[in-house]
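Incident log, structure service

09:12 report received: a user says their structure output differs between two submissions of the same chain.
09:20 pulled the input from the user's history:
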Amino acid sequence: MMESTEADLRPEFNKERIQFETLITDVSARLIKAPTSEVDVEIENSLTLVRNFFQVDRCALCGVRANSKFVWVTHGSYVEGLEPVSGDINLSDLFPWSYERLVIQGRHINVSSIEELPPDTEMERKSWFAMGIKSALTVPLFLAGRVSFIFLLNALHKERSWPTEYIPRLQLLGEILVNSLERRNIDRSLRETKAQLKVHLQEIDHLKQKLEIENAFLRNEVEAHREKEEGREISEGMRPVMTQVRQVASTGSTVLIQGETGTGKELVAGNIHRLSQRGKRVMIR
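09:34 re-ran on a clean worker, output below:
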C-alpha cells in the first residue's frame, strides 16, 4: 500500500493541488447556496468534478450503518457506459477488509494495484476482480465522532498511484458533502414536523369549533329552560320589578338588590346578568 509517491515532488503537482483546492472551494460555495431540494443533485455534480479531476471511472459517496454493518452507495458518478452500483448492495459483505480498516479503525485505504492488498483478503480480491477495480483510494468521513460515510475513487481501466497529499483534502471535501446532507436531513425533518403540527392544529381548531357549536346549543337549551322556569316563578307582583330589571341590565351599573329571604333576590340577579352585556358569560352566584 502506498504511503507516499514521487508525484508529490513533481512541479506539476503543485499546480494540480491548487486546481483541486479551487475545486473544493467551488463545491463548498455551490452547496452552501443550494436549496435543500437540490443538495443531492449538487453532490453528484461535485462527484463528477472529482472523478474528472482524477481521471478515474467511479467516484462515490457511501453511507455507513455501523450498528447493522451495512454500507451502501448513496451518491455516485460513473464514466459513460459503466453501470452504477445499486444502493441495495451491502458493500461491507463484499469488502470485509476495507470495512474493518475504514469503519472500525477509521483509516484510509490507498491501493495502487490489487497486489498491494494483504495476502489474507480473498473476498476482497474477488470483489476487486468482479467490479473491475485496478486502483482505489477510499477515505472515511466522520460525523459526531464516528465513521458515517465513505468517500471512494476507483480506477478501472488502468492502475494509478494516489498522492498522499490529496487524502486530507478529499476528507475535507467529503465532510463538506456530508454536512450538506445533514443540513438537508434536518430541513426535511423540520418540514415534516411543521406539516404534522399543522395537521394537529387543524384538528384542534376543528374540535374547538365543534365544541363551540355544541356549547352554544347547550346554552340555548339551558337558557330556554331557565326562561321557562323563571316565567313560571314570576308573580303579578314581580312584573314591575322585572321591568326595572330590563331597564337597569343594559346600563352596566352596579345594582343593589334587597329583600327578605325567599322573595326572589337570586331570580332578579340572574335576570339582570342574563339581560346584560355579560349575559354570555358564566354568572358567579
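09:41 both user submissions now match this output. Likely a transient worker issue. Closing.
09:42 reviewer note: The longest strand covers residues 146-155. Confidence is low (pLDDT under 50) at residues 1-9.
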